[in-house]
Design brief:
The protein contains 20 helices and 11 strands. The chain has 490 residues and is an alpha/beta fold. The protein has 3 domains: 265 residues, Rossmann fold (3-Layer(aba) Sandwich); 78 residues, Tyrosyl-Transfer RNA Synthetase (Orthogonal Bundle); 78 residues, RNA-binding S4 domain (Structural Genomics Hypothetical 15.5 Kd Protein In mrcA-pckA Intergenic Region, Chain A). The strands form 2 sheets. Strands 1-6-5-2-3-4 form a 6-stranded mixed beta sheet, sandwiched between helices. A 5-stranded mixed beta sheet has the order 7-11-10-8-9. Helix 5 links the parallel strand 3 and strand 4. Helix 1 runs antiparallel to helix 15, helix 2 packs antiparallel against helix 4 and helix 5 packs across helix 16. The longest helix is centred in the C-terminal third of the chain and has 32 residues. The protein starts with 6 loop residues before the first helix and ends with a strand. The relative contact order is 0.11.
């Protein structure tokens, strides 16, 4: 369902279009302005970046393959790249196949657990597929949203996309060669002293002063990322790095390495225009994705919302954003959707003034992000599941309807009747991951929080039986209102 803009919104949109003539969001020069209006800009390494981006450039952002899937916290750099891409710039999402095993020490108190080469390669392959999928869906959705308010053809100004893996160049570099050609350009005192107000990267300095210290491997991470920028500058004409605000020190290290390299190299084949007195390379940092309370998103924070449906179901993904706090809705709409800003203003106006429009902003946010990550079919499934779990009287459900809706959902289990009817429901809750322990399951019963379908479980010894199933097959076991396990009992 699409929201219809009222007269005020249509007039505002027309004014926005008139104002945008000559500085369309689709032109390279307007990309940074739109990023600022949407809240993407934390810091620029040089204000000259504004002029630099008035013509098409190549921009890269690094992606960590330490897990088998991207999570919501990874999306902001990709959205930033997409906004630049749709304005005509070329973008390079860079998978850290070589740097992933080391891990950026920024914000970490201990060294990352090592991954096997096989696991890392598998992670990199899966994340590459996710990135390509996300960028393609993003291009389509961004074009559709732009076409709603802008008369230009939907793909007339897009740049180029090239997904790369830094293992492709690091695998052939010998250690002594790297120290000789790259290490001599880096200055350790600068790495340790580099700070900049709230955008500083003090991780190396803090770890050096900590009890656990820091390994040489982690200490070298900044130089390896700096070399990525140097390599992309030389081979792909890349002049801008985009990253989270915690990447400030790493980005500046790359700029410094490029400039030092220029001083000692007399002939380097490059694809970028340069002034005689300055090497034009820049950094752009964006805020880390947090809630209004400052809570971060990500696997290290323990609250990751994964893009992989096998890790976070489409329904859980949708519901996460549908439950967004009011204080976060407008910011997330600006950061995590391609809805034009005038339409976001209208959505928030409707969200704020009409009791009949409760959760209008959350509904739009959930639909847009779910469509971007899981497609229109994912939105349909998520909303069908929402009706099943939260709105439809469970006694009216049909087993075929549940089977279709929960296909591929990690909360869904097709089980043999003999295997589950002999177990208590408190034990089933533990076996299928609804709670962590029998003690927790028993406490849920004692606090009146464990349900099977519409019935409150009051006895920890209660067992699942044919009589308490829906349509003779369906058992929905839940704790509270948000945690569910769905059984189809054969």
């Amino acid at each position: 369902m699409r929201f219809r803009l009222g007269l005020v919104s249509r007039l505002r949109t027309r004014w926005y279009l008139i104002r945008s003539i000559g500085t369309s969001p689709r032109t390279p020069g307007a990309a940074l302005e739109e990023l600022e209006q949407r809240g993407f800009i934390a810091a620029l390494t040089n204000p000259k970046l504004r002029d630099h981006l008035t013509t098409p450039r190549t921009i890269y952002a690094g992606i960590d393959p330490s897990a088998s899937s991207l999570h919501v916290g990874n999306l902001l750099p990709l959205f930033g790249l997409l906004h630049l891409y749709k304005a005509g710039h070329n973008i390079i999402p860079l998978i850290g196949g070589a740097t992933g095993p080391i891990g950026d020490p920024s914000g970490r108190k201990s060294e990352r657990t090592s991954l096997s080469p096989e696991q890392l390669a598998d992670n990199a392959s899966k994340i590459t597929t996710q990135v390509e999928h996300f960028l393609e869906h993003g291009r389509i959705l961004a074009s559709r949203r732009s076409a709603e308010t802008h008369p230009l053809p939907p793909s007339s100004h897009y740049g180029k996309v090239e997904v790369l893996n830094n293992l492709d160049w690091f695998k052939d570099i010998r250690f002594l060669e790297f120290l000789s050609d790259v290490g001599k350009l880096a200055r350790v005192n600068i790495m340790l002293a580099r700070e900049r107000q709230k955008y500083l990267t003090l991780s190396v300095k803090n770890r050096l002063n900590s009890y656990s210290g820091i390994s040489f491997t982690e200490f070298s991470y900044q130089l390896l990322q700096a070399y990525d920028f140097l390599h992309l500058y030389r081979k792909h004409g890349c002049t801008v790095q985009l990253g989270g605000s915690d990447q400030w020190g790493n980005i500046v290290a790359g700029i410094d390495l490029i400039k030092r390299g220029k001083k000692v190299e007399t002939e380097v084949a490059m694809k970028v225009e340069e002034s005689d007195d300055e090497t034009q390379v820049y950094g752009l940092t964006i805020p880390l994705l947090t809630t209004s309370n400052g809570e971060k998103f990500g696997k290290s924070a323990g609250n990751a919302i994964w893009l992989d449906e096998s890790l976070t179901s489409v329904s859980e993904f949708y519901q996460f954003f549908y439950r967004t706090e009011d204080a976060d809705v407008e910011r997330y709409l600006k950061l995590l959707t391609f809805i034009p800003l005038p339409q976001i203003e209208e959505i928030m106006r409707e969200h704020g003034v009409s009791s009949l429009s409760k959760n209008v902003g959350q509904l739009k946010l959930a639909r847009e992000l779910t469509e971007l990550v899981h497609g229109e079919e994912g939105v349909s499934r998520a909303e069908t599941i929402a009706r099943i779990l939260y709105h439809t009287p469970l006694r009216e459900l049909k087993s075929d309807q549940v089977l279709q809706a929960f296909r591929g959902d990690p909360r869904f289990h097709r089980v043999d009747r003999r295997n589950v009817t002999t177990q208590t429901m408190t034990k089933l809750a533990v076996l299928y991951g609804l709670v962590r322990s029998r003690g927790q399951s028993t406490r849920a019963v004692q606090t009146r929080g464990l349900y099977l379908n519409e019935f409150l479980i009051t006895d920890p010894r209660s067992k699942l039986s044919r009589s308490n199933l829906i349509d003779q097959h369906i058992g929905i076991l839940r704790v509270g209102t948000r945690k569910h396990v769905i059984f189809y009992v054969d």
